[in-house]
Amino acid sequence: MRFDIIGGGAIGLLYGGRLALAGYPVTIWTRTAEQAERLADDGIELVRQGVIRVADVDAFPLQECSRKLPQMDDSEQIILLAVKQTQLTAALLEQVGKLADPNALVIGLQNGIGHVEKLVQAVPHAYVLTGVTTEGALRHGPRTVEHTGEGMIAIGDAFNDLRQKSASDDGLNERMKQSEQEIRHKMLLNAFSLAGITSELSKEMNNRIFQKLLVNAVINPLTALFDVRNGELPQHPRRASLMRALYDETFHVLVAAGMTGDEDRWQQVLQVCERTSENVSSMLADVRAGRQTEIEWINGSVCRLAAQYGLEAPVNASVALLVNAMK
Ligand SMILES: NC(=O)C1=CN([C@@H]2O[C@H](COP(=O)(O)OP(=O)(O)OC[C@H]3O[C@@H](n4cnc5c(N)ncnc54)[C@H](OP(=O)(O)O)[C@@H]3O)[C@@H](O)[C@H]2O)C=CC1
Ligand SMILES: CC(C)(CO)C(=O)C(=O)O
């Protein structure tokens, strides 16, 4: 099993570094040639509670993916797509299509909603899964990533309905035998386990995506607006009230859209703040770096779902306007 990781950002370096330390061949596909050179020369520097480990990886700029395919062998290719929703352009998706071997497993790790449909269209020859990760990661430089919050990854197939509707689907996903898929999934979980990454297979990925969307819809815009780390957000009483208002509205919309489960989701949002207390949320990291945020795919998606189900979402609409106005 070998891993091609697209995007040498916080999540890409975190997973790439941990898998490489476990002995798996890892290639990081970057946006810039400079970062690829740095990673290939010096490896990924993984920081966790002050302990530094260095992982050797291959690295190339993604534009060179058709020229520099890693040597073909018969090991399973796993592609982890670790770029932001904002970076999932037609050009990038075309490169993912070129990089993917027939039958590769391609896993989208994006927060929010929107990447699923694009990936299914872009790599019809591969088998697309979705991953929902609750790890906290912060990139400090071209090769350094800090693991700021222990989490897990749920992996599964969120695309059954889409694949059935997709005219371009050549039937590969349908043809793959159930048992074949199960073996590959188990191998993948085993690789994660050897790398110390907690993972599970889920048969209800749409629900997982909604549950993660709820967490991100509350934490990401408010940490970005108030410029605070995740752990600081609920400590301020008026900001905690705002969290609750955003939570209540989002919860209502997502339940209407099909989110299920009896867990106390408000407590889960608070637990994520606590568990990733030192994390700069990915949206705050974008705002600080002057980059476009994923607000349209997070709170924007909640607004679109609300409209679809005949509901109002004024709090989501307001935070989306405010975060958009920060750039
Ligand atoms: N950070 C976190 O703690 C968490 C993040 N997530 C989600 O994971 C996803 C990734 O987030 P995160 O790692 O934080 O984001 P980052 O911004 O840290 O990383 C994205 C990376 O993608 C690279 N990239 C952009 N365009 C291309 C391209 N055309 N080709 C190759 N690489 C490209 C960027 O390169 P460059 O830097 O050169 O622009 C950057 O290194 C997001 O959807 C996020 O919401 C989920 C859970 C937690
Ligand atoms: C879970 C959380 C909020 C961790 O920071 C995250 O997913 C993000 O930053 O995007």
TrEMBL record:
Enzyme class, broadest EC rank: oxidoreductase
Designated name of the protein: 2-dehydropantoate 2-reductase
Domain Ketopantoate reductase C-terminal: 205-326
Keyword NADP annotated: yes
Keyword NADP: yes
A Pfam entry, by short name: ApbA_C
Record-linked InterPro entries: 6-PGluconate_DH-like_C_sf, 6PGD_dom2, ApbA, Ketopantoate_reductase, KPA_reductase, KPR_N, NAD(P)-bd_dom_sf
Originating organism: Paenibacillus terricola
Pathway assigned in UniProt: Cofactor biosynthesis; (R)-pantothenate biosynthesis; (R)-pantoate from 3-methyl-2-oxobutanoate: step 2/2
Annotated NCBIfam families: apbA_panE
Catalytic activity entry: (R)-pantoate + NADP(+) = 2-dehydropantoate + NADPH + H(+)
